[in-house]
Each structure stands twice: as structure tokens, then as C-alpha cells.
Design brief:
Blueprint (H helix, E strand, L loop, with lengths): L4 E4 L5 H10 L8 E4 L13 E9 L2 E15 L2 E13 L8 H16 L3 E7 L3 H9 L3 E11 L10 E3 L5 H12 L10 H10 L8 E6 L2 E10 L5 E4 L4 H4 L10 E7 L3 E2 L2 H17 L6 E8 L15 E11 L19
Parallel strand pairs: 5-6, 12-14
Antiparallel strand pairs: 1-3, 2-11, 3-4, 4-5, 6-15, 7-14, 7-15, 8-9, 9-10, 10-12, 10-13, 11-12
Amino acid sequence: MTRFAVRPARESDNEALVELDRKCTMGEQTTLAFVRAPDFFARSKPYEQHTLVVAESDGALVGVGGLALKLLRVGGQLLKGAYFYDLRVDPAFRRVGVASVIEDALRDLVKQSEADVTYSLVLEGNVPSLQFAEKRGARPVRRCAVAILAPAEAPGTGRLRSLEARDLDRVSFLLERSYARHDLFPPRNVTGLHRLLKRTPGLSLRTWYGLERSGDLAACFGLWDYSSVMRMRVHRQRAPTEARVPRPFQGGEFAPHFLLPLAFRTPALLAKSIQEARRLLNDRQGDSMSRALLIPYDPHDPAFVGLGEIERFEFGIQLFARPIRRDVTLGERPFYIDPIDL
């Protein structure tokens, strides 16, 4: 077997990593293509603890993989979680052990961290990655989804306002109320929210909004401009899919915007938040790219039933997990699909 050197990624690797990502498009296997230029490392910046490693052959960069360590709630317990992401192998070096060498290096880091559970998200249709995850011992737990919605004209509620630092305590409360019973939810206290805002490209209090009811914050969402991390385009149209792709996304690149974090008192307020976010995107001025609202969700979460009434393009993601502690069970509760994991 060819030997590969594995080392931590460096900022000087950025150009080679962007080129590697460009070569790793999944062609006819998936509907979506992603554009990571100009900063491959922007994808990792929202994580407080993360590591990227690269594999080299004769000095050439041929693969990359990432690991983020997060405090997660699973079954009501606070556990150490490890998230695997951004596994890429140069097409000319596939099936010769590069991916395994990279994951072995990341698993060594997981052992050192004493994590309780590992997980990953794989785009539906990415057959090689799906097969690799199962081959390496991860269990497919649930098919989740990301809904892509077009901006829309909509009447405002009159109760939407930008958030301020003094609102973060209430935001933390709403997040706990919304997701305390969800597995893989990273609890967010006020200090953690401040740090998230500071390190996440494209997200700030200026892009965070709240809905009030009776003078109190009842729902909130951050309109995270993800085009600072990557852009997207639909690169394949099959007859069954074409009718479901909103017209703004049927050609060229579009700028994705995630709702981060989305918190609410009731499902009705969740639906109202989505309506307001689509209106805000519709009203935005600036670049000529179409804008899209992205909402990752677990279909087992009853709060997201209302999405079924909105025209959208949707792509599936398979959640894989591997509990390390024997007393950890996954799959019995709804999952929190963290936008920063995408």
C-alpha cells in the first residue's frame, strides 16, 4: 500500500485545499454542488474546538478531514461529542487507503479527547462516503433533510426587531426550551452565544432578530449569510426533481442563508419566524445572486410539520453515529441538526 504522511492543515494549504474541493464534486451522484473558494478554513471557524488534517503523497496534498469537539445533550445527559466532517480525497488517489489514514488520525484525537459519541452527516447520493461511513463502523441512524426556500414577499408582523446583547439571556432560555429534548443539541449559554457570534463568519447581532409577544421575546433567529463560507448551485435536474426546484435556483449559483439559531415558544411562532426570514431576504439589496433560506431539520421533530405547506427544494442528509459509551442510545428522540455542521 502506498504510504501517506498525515499532518495538521496550515493556512498556507488554503489554495491547495480549495483546488482539492473543486476536484471532489460528486458529479451525477448528487443534485447540489458547493463552491468553497476563497477560504477553505471558513467552514471550521464556527467551532470552538476543531482540527483539520491533510494527507500528502510526495509533497502533494491528496486528502483532508476535519474533527470538531462539542459538548452535546444526548438522552438528557451532557456528553462529549466528536463530529467528523469535510473528508475529501483527490480522485486520482481514491481506493488506496487515503480516507482510512485520515480517519485513523482523527480517531486517535477522539480517543485523546475521551469523547462519548461520534457522528457525521453525509449528503444523500454521495454513495462512496455513505459506504465508507458504514465500513468504518458508524451506524446510519436517521435520514434528515435541508429545506431550501426562496425569498418571498410577506406581510410583516410589526413585532420583529434586531436583537441586542442584553437579549442573549432570553435567547439562551428559548434555545433550551426548544431543543432540550433533542439529541446532539449543544447547549448555548450567554457566554457561549457571545463566542459563537464572534467566531462565525457572516453572523452577528446585526443579523439576529426576535419576535415579541406581550412585551417578551417569544422567538428568535439569526439570518446567517453562509455565502461567506460557501455558495451553492443545482447542477443536475431530473424530471421528478425539476418541478420541486424553485425558479431562482434552477441555474447559476445562489447565496445560502441558514437560520441560526432558530428558537421559539410554539410551532406557530416557528412558522412565523420562517415567514419573516423569507421577507427579510426578499427585501435585501446587494449582490445579484439569488438568495436562499436553508433550514436543516429532523422529520421526526413535530415542530417542522408546517414546512410541508411551503414550496421548497429539499435534499436529504444521512446522520451516522457511533456511541462510544455503552449506556448511550441514539435514535429514540428527535435530533438537533446544527447548521454549523453543514
